[in-house]
């Protein structure tokens, strides 16, 4: 079916032919009968062009639960199942996702292709650290199972590999045991970026940590923010009302943004006003309470179609990571330039990563910052400038969020890029799986 498509950032928007199969046999026919390349795509919640191309193989028809071991916490499903659907199944049995991003509306195949990280990377690593095995259909129609112990090189090229090694059919992964479906959280206000870094060190023992940063504040309150740390709550930490629903799965959608906002509503003045109000929302420096996992992990999911708030032209989410030794100086440099430019972001999310050794996945031991920028004049040259700074400090950009990175930035910043490219060529020799991004970066182009 021919349709107009974009991913969550609404940039770029393209015309594409989308095929939705629901069985391996039908998928094989689609692959082998076509002379044109395809890109696998899940629910379209990546931000850039990693799952866009002229021809798209949707995984949404592959949405069956295959097995769930309630005692060991091993879950197996097809690649098109969405995290929200998985949570509805596992939470009532006292289990949770081992790693989750800031939205529950991604597919499990997308979780593997992006090797998603969450607020607990410094403790639990990335999603694929918990994957038992993956089943792929290669471009020639063959089906191969890979894991950390079987067909290891294919597994390593598939985790974080943006769907370039094959179409993910099913995923088996380990869950996290929980006593309740609530999070015991603490929020601490930091008056500047340096105090915020001290708080991350102070609260590093928590499983989940992240912070919001005011990326436009200058002077003595430069980089002020709010640290949020949490643990899965024990029964004794809950209120009487919460104890009545200790394994409840949540869905706290409040409303939908029905239309695209006018572009002029997003400017440095509205961003400054939002940042002021968000920082002041916590009257006290410290706040402790127990909240639903939905409120803690997925606050933006309460607003359906929130991406429309950035206007018809869409937005870019710019996420980078810097090595630990460059965090303070590098983040200070980048936040200073953002402040001077006036190109502020409503959503500036800062996290600390733990150690990770992987071929092409994004995380490294260090700190990461994600920023949303509405598409507007002069944005792309400004982001090119930020790219140079990220490279100078030894960092890299997140492929799942990327829509405009130049190929030299990718090849310089990912040490495993050459090996990854070789493995893509080995398992996808005719580049039957390729995307706008892979062509732009020179992986398949």
Features:
five-stranded antiparallel beta sheet, 445 residues, 26% helix, alpha+beta, eight-stranded antiparallel beta sheet, Uridine Diphospho-n-acetylenolpyruvylglucosamine Reductase, domain 3, 21 strands, Alpha-Beta Plaits
Describe the structure.
The protein is of the alpha+beta class. It has 2 domains: 114 residues, Uridine Diphospho-n-acetylenolpyruvylglucosamine Reductase, domain 3 (2-Layer Sandwich), CATH 3.30.465; 223 residues, Alpha-Beta Plaits (2-Layer Sandwich). It is built from 13 helices and 21 strands. An 8-stranded antiparallel sheet has the order 16-12-14-13-19-20-18-21. A 5-stranded antiparallel sheet has the order 5-6-10-8-9. It has a 4-stranded mixed sheet with strand order 1-2-4-3, with no helix packed on it. Strand 1 and strand 2 form a beta hairpin. Helix 9 packs antiparallel against helix 10. The model has no long low-confidence stretch (mean pLDDT 92).
């Amino acid at each position: 079916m021919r349709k107009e498509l974009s991913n969550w950032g609404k940039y770029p928007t393209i015309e594409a032919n989308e095929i939705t199969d629901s069985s391996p046999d039908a998928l094989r026919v689609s692959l082998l009968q076509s002379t044109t390349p395809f890109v696998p795509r899940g629910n379209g919640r990546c931000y850039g062009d990693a799952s866009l191309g002229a021809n798209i193989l949707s995984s949404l028809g592959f949405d069956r639960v295959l097995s769930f071991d309630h005692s060991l916490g091993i879950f197996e499903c097809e690649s098109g199942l969405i995290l929200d659907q998985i949570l509805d199944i596992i939470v009532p049995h006292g289990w949770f996702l081992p790693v989750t991003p800031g939205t529950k509306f991604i597919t499990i195949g997308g979780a593997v292709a992006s090797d998603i990280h969450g607020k607990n990377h410094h403790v639990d690593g990335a999603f694929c650290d918990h994957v038992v095995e993956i089943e792929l259909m290669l471009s020639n129609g063959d089906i191969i199972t890979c894991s950390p112990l079987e067909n290891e090189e294919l597994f390593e090229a598939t985790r974080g590999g943006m769907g370039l090694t094959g179409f993910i059919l099913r995923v088996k992964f380990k869950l996290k045991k929980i006593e309740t479906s609530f999070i015991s959280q603490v929020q601490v206000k930091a008056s500047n970026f340096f105090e915020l870094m001290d708080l991350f060190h102070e609260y590093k023992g928590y499983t989940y940590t992240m912070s919001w940063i005011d990326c436009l504040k200058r002077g003595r309150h430069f980089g002020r923010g709010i640290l949020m740390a949490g643990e899965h709550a024990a029964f004794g930490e809950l209120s009487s009302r919460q104890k009545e629903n200790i394994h409840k799965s949540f869905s706290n959608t409040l409303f939908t943004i029905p239309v695209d906002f006018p572009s002029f509503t997003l400017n440095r003045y509205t961003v400054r006003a939002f940042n002021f109000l968000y920082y002041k929302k916590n009257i006290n420096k410290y706040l402790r309470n127990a909240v639903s996992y939905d409120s803690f992990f997925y606050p933006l999911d309460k607003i359906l179609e929130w991406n429309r708030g950035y206007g018809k032209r869409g937005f870019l989410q710019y996420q980078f990571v810097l090595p630990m030794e460059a965090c303070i100086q590098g983040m200070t440099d980048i936040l200073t330039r953002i402040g001077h430019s006036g190109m502020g972001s409503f959503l500036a999310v800062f996290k600390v990563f733990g150690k990770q050794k992987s071929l092409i996945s994004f995380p490294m031991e260090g700190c990461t910052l994600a920023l949303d920028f509405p598409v507007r004049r002069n944005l792309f040259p400004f982001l090119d400038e930020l790219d140079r700074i990220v490279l100078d400090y030894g960092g890299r950009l997140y492929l799942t969020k990327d829509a405009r990175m130049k190929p030299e930035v990718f090849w310089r910043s990912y040490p495993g890029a050459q090996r990854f490219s070789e493995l893509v060529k080995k398992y996808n020799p005719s580049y039957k799986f390729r995307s706008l991004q892979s062509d732009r970066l020179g992986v398949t182009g």
